[in-house]
Amino acid sequence: MDVQIWTYIIVGFTFAIYIGIAIWSRAGSTKEFYVAGGGVSPLANGLATAADWMSAASFLGMAGIISFSGRDGSVYLMGWTGGYVLLALLLAPYLRKFGKFTVPDFVGDRYYSQTARVIAVICALFISFTYVAGQMRGVGIVFSRFLQVDITWGVIIGMAIVFLYAVLGGMKGITYTQVAQYCVLIFAFSVPAIYISIMLTGNAIPQIGFGSELIDEPGVSLLDKLDGLSTELGFDQYTTGKKGTMDTFFITMALMVGTAGLPHVIVRFFTVPKVSDARKSGLYALFFIAILYTMAPAVSAFARTNLLDTIPNTSYNESPEWFKKWETAGLIAWKDKNNDGIIQYTKGNAFEGKPTYIKNRDGEFERGEHGEIMLSNAHVKGENELYIDKDIMVLANPEIAGLPDWVIALVAAGGLAAALSTAAGLLLVISTSVAHDLIKKSINPNITEKGELYAARLAAVGAVLIAGYFGINPPDYVAAVVALAFGLAAASFFPILILGIFSKKVNKEGAIAGMLIGLVSTLAYIVYFKFLHVNLNKPENWLFGISPEGFGTVGMILNFVVTIVISKFTPKPPVEVQKMVEEIRYPGEIKS
C-alpha cells in the first residue's frame, strides 16, 4: 500500500474514534457544555490539557522553527514550556477555586465591572480566532499533501469534524476526544523520532541521540556534523545564536506570559471536581507536554541534517519523489537562477515573499525545462534557489529519512490531531464568551439554561464557519497576527489575572486602564513595524533592541505599573470583593 492509502486508513480510523466519542459524551446542560460537568479525573484532564496546549504550532511549527533557526529557535521551546509552568502554578488552582467558567467571567466579577468583562471578551475572541484560523489552515495543508485534495476541501473536512464533537459535545465531548488525540499525536511524533535516532546514532531515545555520535562517522557528533553542513552552505552554525540577549529575554518572556494567559487552556482547569485535582492535572499535563517538548530539538536536528545531506547541490531531475510532492503542495519551490539544473541552497531568501506558481488555462502548473514548476516571483539577488516552508519539517521528516509509508501516514494523522484538538478548545472559548459572558452576563441575564445552551451551540457554529473562511482565505499577515496574539495575551490577560488573585487592593479603574494601555502600546508597536513600516523592522530601529515579537513583555510591564498606580489613587474595591480575593488565595475547596 502507498502513502495515500495508509493515510486514508489511519486518518479515517482516528476520525471515527473522535466522532464516536463526541456522540457518546454529548453535553446535555450548560455546565457539561462549558466545563464537562466539572467531573473529569485529573489524569484524563492532564491528557486533554496536553492535547489542547500542543497545537499545530507545537507539533509542526516549533520543530520547523528550530530546524531553520538553530539555537535562536529555542526561545519558543523555553517560552511555551515556561508559560505552561506559570499557568499551572500561579493561575490554574486559584481560578479553579474561584469557580467561574471563563476568564472574562473572572475579570468581570473580580473587578466588578461590565466594561472590564467586555474588554476581556474582545481579547479572548481575537486571540481565539487568530489561533483557530491557523489550526484550520494546518488541517487543509495536511489534507492537500497526503490525501491529494484541494486545501479548500481539506479545511471543509476539518470544519465538519470539529463541528461534530465541539458543537454537539461541548467541553464534555472535547475533553474525552482530546484524550484520544493526545495518544495519537504523541505516538505520531515519537515513532519517526525513534526510527531516525536509531538510524543516525544507534540510540533509541531521541533526547539522547540528539547529542550522540553518528554511526557512519565515528567520533563525530550529530550537532558537530550539522554545524559543518550549515557552514559549508553559507549558513550560520546551528548551535550558535545570533539574537541579542535583551531580545531573547523579551521574546521568551512574552511567549511565557502570553501563553499563560491563553483562555482555551485556562478553562481546562475548571473541568475537574476539586482544587487539588486542578493541581494534579497540571502536573500530569506538564509530564505529557514534556515528552514532546524534550523531543522537538532532536526532531529538528534530525530533519535538518537529513535535508542538508540530501537536497543541496543535487540535480533537480535526480531529486527524491518527496521533494516534488511537497513542491506540488506549494510548500517547496525551486528557481534555477544560473540555469545549471542543480539545486543551490544557501543563506538568504530565494524569492520576494512566498513563491507564486504559474498555471495555464486548464489550471495545471506551467513547467520549466527541468520539469520544475514555474514561478511568477521576481527572484532575489543571490545564490539561494530553494524555498522551504518551515512547517513541513516534521511532516516531511519521515519521507526525507526514507521511513515506511505507514509512518509517514501516522505523522499526518498526528498533525491533524494536534490541530483539531486545539481548534476545538478555541471554538469552545469563542462560544462560551459569546453565550455566557456577553448574552448571559451582559445582554440577557434572564435567559434560560436551555436558551443559553442553544446560544452557545449557535455561536460555535458561527465560529466554525468564520474559522473555516480564514483557513481557506488566510490574510497575508497571518504569521504576524499570531505574534500579535501572543503579545496581546501577555499585555492584557496575564497582569490582571495575577493581580486579581494576589492583590486585594487592585480595583476596576486600575484594571481597565492597565488592560487598555497594555493592549494599545503592544498593538501600536507591532502594527508600526509589521505593517506600516516593514522596511524599518530591523534591530537598530527597535526600542532598546526589542523586536515586535518581544514587545508584549513591555506591554505587560506597562499594564502592571498603570494598574497598580491608578488603583493606589482611586477607591479600594468593595469589602466583599476583598474577602473573595482573600478566600481564593488560600488552600481549600470552594464553599457551597
Give a verbal description of the structure.
This protein has 592 residues and is mainly alpha-helical. It has 2 domains: 3-307 and 405-474, Sodium/glucose cotransporter, CATH 1.20.1730.10; 332-388, no CATH class. It is 67% helix and 1% strand. The chain is built from 22 helices and 2 strands. It has helices spanning 3-24, 30-35, 42-53, 56-69, 74-98, 103-110, 114-146, 151-168, 170-201, 206-209, 222-232, 245-260, 263-266, 275-310, 321-328, 393-400, 405-443, 449-472, 478-502, 508-532, 552-568, 575-584; strands spanning 332-334, 386-388. A two-stranded antiparallel ribbon has the order 1-2. Helix 5 (74-98) packs parallel to helix 12 (245-260) and helix 12 (245-260) packs across helix 19. The protein starts with a helix and ends in an 8-residue tail after the last helix.
What's the quick description here?
The chain has about 600 residues and is mostly helical. It contains 22 helices and 2 strands. The chain has a two-stranded antiparallel ribbon with strand order 1-2.
Instruction: Compute the CA-based radius of gyration.
Output: 24 Å
H/E series = HHHHHHHHHHHHHHHEEHHHHHHH
Arithmetic mean pLDDT: 83
Task: Characterize the overall form.
Answer: globular
Measured as a percent range, the helix fraction is 55-70%
Q: How large a portion of the residues is in β-strands, by DSSP E?
A: under 5%
Query: Please, how many helices?
Result: 22
Estimate nothing, just give the exact number of structural domains. Answer: 2
What's the arrangement of strands in the largest beta sheet? 1-2
CATH architecture of the largest domain: Up-down Bundle
Structural class: mainly alpha
Oligomer: single chain
Distance between the termini: 59 Å
Low-confidence parts, pLDDT < 50 over ≥5 residues? 476-480
Number of strands: 2
CATH class (first level) name of the largest domain: Mainly Alpha
The CATH superfamily name of the largest domain is: Sodium/glucose cotransporter
User: Main beta sheet, described?
Assistant: 2 strands, antiparallel
Q: Output the CATH topology of the largest domain.
A: Sodium/glucose cotransporter
